[in-house]
Amino acid sequence: MTLPHSPACDLLGSRIPLVLAGMGGVARAELVSAVTASGGFGFLGMVREPPELIQREVERLRQSGHRHFGVNIIPAATDPALLERQVATCIELAVPVVGTFWDLDGHVTRRLRDAGIMVVHQVGSVDEAIEAERAGVEIVIAQGREAGGHVRGVRPLRDLLPEVCAAINIPVLAAGGMATGGDLVTAMALGAAGIVLGTALMATEESFAHPYHKQRLLAADAADTVLTSSFHINWPPNAPVRVLKSDVTSGARGDPHAPERTVIGDEEGRPIYLFSTDSPLRSMTGDFESMALYAGTGIGRIHDIGSAAARLQTILVQAAELLAVDPADTGDQDVEVSSSVCYAGEMNGAYMGEADLADDLWLLAAQMQAALRAALAQGVDPAAASQPPFAADAAALASWSLQVRQLAEGEGAATAHPIVPGKLPPRALLLQGLGALVPRITRPGLRDRLARLRLFLAAEERDASA
């Protein structure tokens, strides 16, 4: 099995469903070029940057032969006069995609869309996703609270993502702590068309982050990150960021909102202030430890500073290995193809034949997603303030969920979201559905595969109750 077809890839012109976040300062032409050359899609991080820099970075990408890329801007964090010049520059350059974040600026969105530019907007809630779709946004990024940098939402990605996917009819990308192939498989099993990588690609050779920041990332784990409002200069109020813990986040450097400003660094003549949202870049000097060391909760799964191409390839290989291995492989064990009790009444359609097999498989896919969401919720440590978005041991169940969805789509199933009855726990309901479906399938390959899935789930159910 392979990853399912991604409509986001069709829109963005990429080969793989891996997207580089438009990290301000960090995502420049070198990193975007490396991601694009590897088949992914990249955003130049141009928040508050002058039009001259936008033009220079876009020209560098085009001189390298790249046509599919985006420019990320943040209207709410940009002076209106500069924002106007940024938008005009993107239109003049015929940039193919513009990414936006924080408050949705309807005027900017309309101007870009009228100019034929695709708009991708990052959201932190279902309501924001609906608003973005109505405004003409073509792809939404659902950002969980696990993300590094500025965090819009307050909900875990495992809860937010499937709800956003169900609420809108445009592709959704998942963001927040994404770092592994298991994250990719799980996000797609929850309905995403791909994932957005920030911290995972900051810790690469091509990123414009300062080596100090990169080394701090390697030494960190999820528990070393914290959501804080300490870094706020240059941004709207009430804009928390996820960073590595430091003397600044502990309060040892004083009151972040005191009127006086302290210079702690320099970037080519521009002062860097304590409590500003600037993160350490190659072009900076100063007290890096007191700057915003952005990091998402997936950081503990990143162990080296390699190339962006190698990082993307590792994620794809991990995902492929998950989908290639049957999580329910029973070895020499006999496969049970019938159940002692028939729960046909729990399933829809004509139960004595395969006329409605596509719809039954689609309902089964919905039940699989419900079971996956329940498993992800069970893997959460309530006492942990910072943890990766998805438990690693849920990846096998996510793999099954994706595979069942592909089976359903292969049968021509409708893409409407079926309602899954809630009178039983998700896994028990899924076992009942399989008990009804497996005996009436006549094709041995499909029947045996779903029978193995039933054995796999039954074994997990026994282990959970032991």
Low-pLDDT residue spans: 332-355
Number of domains: 2
For the residues shown, what is the average pLDDT?
A: 89
Shape: globular
* Main β-sheet description: 8 strands, parallel, barrel
Secondary-structure content class: alpha/beta
Number of helices: 16
CATH topology of the largest domain: TIM Barrel
The value of Rg in angstroms is 23 Å
| Overall CATH architecture of the largest domain | Alpha-Beta Barrel
Name the helix and strand elements from N-terminus to C-terminus, one letter apiece.
HEHEHEHEHEHEEHEHEHHEEHEEEHHHHH
* Cα-to-Cα separation, first versus last residue: 32 Å
Beta strands, count:
14
- Widest sheet, order of strands: 1-2-3-4-5-6-8-9
Residues in helices, as a percent range: 25-40%
Could you state the CATH homologous superfamily of the largest domain? Answer: Aldolase class I
In the CATH hierarchy, what is the class of the largest domain?
Alpha Beta
Strand content: 5-15%
Please give a handful of descriptors for the protein shown:
single chain; 466 residues; alpha/beta; TIM Barrel; 2 domains; 8-stranded parallel barrel; 3-stranded antiparallel beta sheet; 14 strands; globular
List the helices and strands and how they pair.
Elements: H1 7-12, E1 18-20, H2 29-37, E2 41-45, H3 51-63, E3 70-72, H4 80-92, E4 97-100, H5 106-114, E5 118-123, H6 126-135, E6 139-143, E7 149-150, H7 157-167, E8 172-175, H8 181-189, E9 195-197, H9 199-202, H10 211-218, E10 225-228, E11 241-244, H11 247-250, E12 263-267, E13 270-273, E14 284-286, H12 308-324, H13 357-378, H14 395-410, H15 426-437, H16 444-465
Parallel strand pairs: 1-2, 1-9, 2-3, 3-4, 4-5, 5-6, 6-8, 8-9
Antiparallel strand pairs: 7-11, 10-11, 12-13, 12-14
Helix pairs in contact: 2-3, 8-12, 8-14, 13-14, 13-15, 15-16
